[in-house]
Design goal:
By secondary structure, the protein is of the alpha/beta class. It is built from three helices and 13 strands, in the order ββββββββαββαβββα. The chain has two domains: 174 residues, Ribonuclease Inhibitor (Leucine-rich repeat, LRR (right-handed beta-alpha superhelix), Alpha-Beta Horseshoe); 37 residues. It starts with 6 loop residues before the first strand and ends in a 6-residue tail after the last helix. It holds the Pfam family LRR_8.
């Protein structure tokens, strides 16, 4: 029956959305392939019930952003493929529940911002990342690759960006710009990090308040 299903592929089906609790009965699912569809938005309950899922493939869809909590049901996930979507700016706080993730594929997107320090903090088990077409300044890209190297994270360039005929760092395309713009980028990244940290703190406070509200009054 479906309760024992380990692998499910519904790729190439022109899906535009994943309904809440769509996979609730598939608690033994190990691999889920949703690639090559037209999915643009994921519901916060789209992956409810998939606590044992190890591999999630979302390649070649129309995803551009993710709500915080999208991956909260996937604590066992080890591989996440978000390649060839329309992600330009990624709030890495969405990866907070994925502490066991070892491989992340982001190639085929066009990031103009990526907080790599928070990324490696949230994804503490990460050992391999496929990088997207970079529209990052070369200085910022160099900082990011240095962090990955220090964390022993293998970084693979996008298949379409590994060219040495234009400005690049280790075959990953980038662009140069003046110091004023670099400073602005650093400030934007710092503010993104503060915003992400505040959201984590707000979630923690909310959980504490919820626990206090559920605590028996006569035991206080």
């Amino acid at each position: 029956g479906v309760h024992g299903l380990r692998t499910l592929s519904i790729a190439y089906n022109d899906l535009e959305e994943i309904a809440p609790n769509a996979f609730l009965a598939l608690d033994s699912l190990y691999i889920l392939n949703l690639g090559y569809n037209n999915i643009s938005v994921l519901d916060l309950q789209s992956f409810s019930g998939l606590s044992g899922l190890r591999r999630l493939i979302l390649t070649d869809n129309n995803l551009s952003s993710f709500r915080i909590g999208t991956f909260s049901h996937l604590s066992a996930l080890e591989y996440l493929d978000l390649s060839n979507n329309k992600i330009a700016k990624l709030k890495v706080i969405v990866f907070y529940p994925l502490g066991g993730l070892t491989r992340l594929n982001l190639e085929g997107n066009s990031f103009n911002s990526l907080n790599h320090n928070l990324l490696v903090y949230y994804l503490s088990s990460l050992n391999e990342i496929n990088l997207p077409n970079s529209v990052l300044p070369c200085g910022k890209l160099t900082e990011m690759l240095k962090v990955f190297r220090n964390k022993n994270i293998k970084y693979l360039p996008d298949k379409d960006s590994g060219v040495f005929s234009s400005e690049n760092v280790e075959g990953i395309s980038c662009y140069d710009r003046n110091e004023e713009s670099l400073s602005r980028s650093s400030l934007e990244t710092m503010l993104d990090g503060v915003e992400d940290a505040m959201k984590v703190l707000e979630n923690a406070i909310s959980k504490v308040n919820e626990n206090l509200n559920n605590y028996p009054v006569d035991e206080l």
